[in-house]
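To: structure desk
From: M.T.
Subject: fold request, one chain
Message: Could you run this one when you get a chance? Sequence is below, nothing fancy, just the single chain.
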Amino acid sequence: MKIPEFGTLQMTRTDAAHYGTGSIVSLTQNPDKTSLLHTTQKEGTLSFADYLLDAVNTVNSQQMDVTKLQEQVITDPDSVDVADVTIAMQKARMSLSLAQTVIDRLVSGWSELTTVR
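Reply: Done. Structure tokens follow.
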């Protein structure tokens, strides 16, 4: 796929879901200097901030579910399978680890951007 603004750049996408719905807008074509994130999205799509908040809410809900399962194991051990508790704990640990990695990458990317300027 050739993008006219970038000359001969070829982009290879392996999944149709990765194509996106917005159009590429250069900084010179953005007269009001608003955030490009909001100018490239179409009606009904989520912004980057919405995706981040949704991810944080998902991690939080997984942590809360694990807490409820742990309390249920203590109060009524026969009602909960130990394997379900273990799986829920590992899912919550993995999602928290992934969130921490994403946060670290965002912070390091932001610090690199600010030191370049």
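Reply (cont.): The CA atoms of residues 2 and 46 lie 26 Å apart. Let me know if you need anything else for the meeting.
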